[in-house]
Amino acid sequence: MTMQARRTRDRGPKGRALDDAALAEVRNILGVRERRRDLLIEFLHLIQDRYGCLSAAHLRALAEEMRLSQAEVYEVATFYDHFDVVKEGEARPAPLTIRVCDSISCMLAGAEDLFGELAAGVDPKAIRVVRAPCMGRCAGAPAARIGDREVDHASSQGLLNMAREGAIKVVVPDYIGLEAYRAAGGYRLLQKVRGGALGVDAII
């Protein structure tokens, strides 16, 4: 055996070893969906929704299944604050997470007090309370997210009541569909521009 071959053997395979059970779980979650690179974030959401976090074994399995490098999958998973990456040896997060927005608007509206009240009023084994970056809900400050549900003008008592009642699923607001929007005149201006009825001078 050459010196180079011996060094390669001693180093072993690069990266984390693949866990067959984790790979089977990831394949079960993804189902028949195409393993497209642009679906990586969606797949990370699916795994976290199922297991409550992103374990090292599942990240390794997802990289294998999508034919991506482990580094790429890990970098995407750790870039977004709402993904909970659990490294080997770390404990999984509590079953329920309450995130309190700590943007300037929310801090001015009492987010720090809200965070303190929640942290002091929950069982950390059942509910985890963490700070989160801007949720884009400044008009409803202080904003929070309990489970998958975003809450405007959040209060500690209101959030704790929601936790007890299990009101933690996303709420989809009423919205107008595309056909109804177009029937009500939506995109007419765009159609006039594209059809040449309106020129640049008229728009500006």
From TrEMBL:
Pfam families membership: 2Fe-2S_thioredx
Superkingdom, taxonomy of origin: Bacteria
Keywords, sorted A to Z: Iron, Iron-sulfur, Metal-binding
One GO MF term attached to the UniProt entry: iron-sulfur cluster binding
Protein name: Respiratory-chain NADH dehydrogenase domain-containing protein
